[in-house]
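NEBU protein
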Amino acid sequence: YTEAWDADKKTIHVMPDTPDILLAKANAANISNKLYVKGWEEAKKKGYDMRADAIPIKTAKASRDIASDYKYKETHEKEKGHYIGCPSAKDDPKLALAARAMALQNDRLYKKAYNDSKTQIHIPVDAMSVQAAKECQTLVSDIDYRQYLHQWTCLPDQNDVIHARQAYDLQSDNVYKSDLEWLRGIGWLTEGSVDVVKAKKAQELLNDRLYRTRPEQLKFTSIADSPDVVLAKTNAMQLSDV
């Protein structure tokens, strides 16, 4: 069944210029690492020209000089200590500006004028601010705020004085308890008082001996021929091993 197909497979020929074959060749060339580095390998075999006046070398040197910190600060280091056109450091605008900024930032120099004029102030006695402060001190002073009244002199038979004495006597605790003074030192027996009688009644109510009667105090005689006694005797005789 497959013999004809196997024989036919060997006779198939694909043209080399078909689109599929061309596409496969192009893809193989694109992903080939050997073709990718072929130009670099051939350039390495030819060698290289490394002259001192080559453009890449000059470019690299110029970039190194620009980036070099020494070359960057070379002019500044040479100009240190040399002032051109200024006879002294005070005449230099930059130094004068720096000194001015330092003086403005100095707290001692900032308050120098205030400290010098602080002890030279003279305030008149009748100034408005001084008078206002005195008035305010008078208002908030406790001595001037409290003025004690003078001692009044009242006659003892005035109605106001008599009424005040009566009100004081009513409110006085000594006068209120003066009727109990005659009881001090008098002996008194608590027997028969309300609290003692109440305690005795409570004790009688809580006394178990008076509340309950013990069984041995009751007079009881059992009947010998009662049905319960006869039944108990019969059961005892039936259960007896003897």
